[in-house]
Amino acid sequence: MSVEPRENVPLAPFTTLGVGGPARFYVRVDDAASLAGALEWAERRAQAVLVLGGGSNLVVADEGHLGLVIHLALRGVAARPSGDTVDVTAAAGEYWDPLVAFAADKGWAGIECLSGIPGLVGATPIQNVGAYGQDVSGTIVSVEAMDVRTRVRATFDNAACRFGYRMSRFKSDDRG
After folding, report:
1. To 5 degrees, how large is the angle CA 32–CA 71–CA 20?
2. Alpha-carbon span 146 to 49, nearest angstrom
């Protein structure tokens, strides 16, 4: 899929601290094909890539980012019964706290203690976010991810994510 990044886009509005310079190139992606297209665009032009989520753990230098910033805006939440439980699928660009509120409003247990954590759903398995004795590894069934180098999508079951305290394979061995 062809993407047309914008140039010199201020990044401060996309961070919770509200500071930082511009992205030399910036593109907002709302599906996996657009994400793959943006990664291909950067590779063809030898541009460094910064994947931007909710901006809650991001400090951008005044000089900004000299490569391509890919802003994740993949949306969608679906729920389906699975025996005595409910499987909820959420896209990486969904905001975490509204997802927690949605589950709690339905009376579904497992992530209710994780309310108030800033950021997007896609970041939660990377760091295995947690609070008050819960962490997402206790409820994640699987994670679909795209390798930024090969653009290959893969699904990892819970065990394959290699969760630990504030850790996963996505933060260590498979960073990026």
Report:
1. 165
2. 14
Is residue 1 predicted with pLDDT exceeding 70?
Answer: no
C-beta separation of 72 from 53 below 8 A:
yes
In what order do the strands lie in the sheet containing 6-10?
6-10, 22-29, 65-72, 49-52
Do 147 and 39 form a contact (C-beta atoms < 8 A)? no
118 touches 56 (CB < 8 A)? yes
Q: Give the integer Cα–Cα distance in Å for 131 and 15.
A: 22
Task: Write out pLDDT tens, residues 105-140.
Answer: 999 999 999 999 999 999 999 999 999 999 999 999
**CA distances (Å), 86 to each of 1, 14, 23, 106, in order?**
34, 33, 40, 10
Q: Which residues contact 175 (CB under 8 A, 6 or more apart)?
A: none
Give residue-wise pLDDT tens across range 19-44: 999 999 999 999 999 999 999 999 99
Q: Which of 126, 124, 157 is nearest to 142 (CA)?
A: 157
Instruction: Report the predicted TM-score, pTM, of the whole model to 2 decimal places.
Output: 0.90
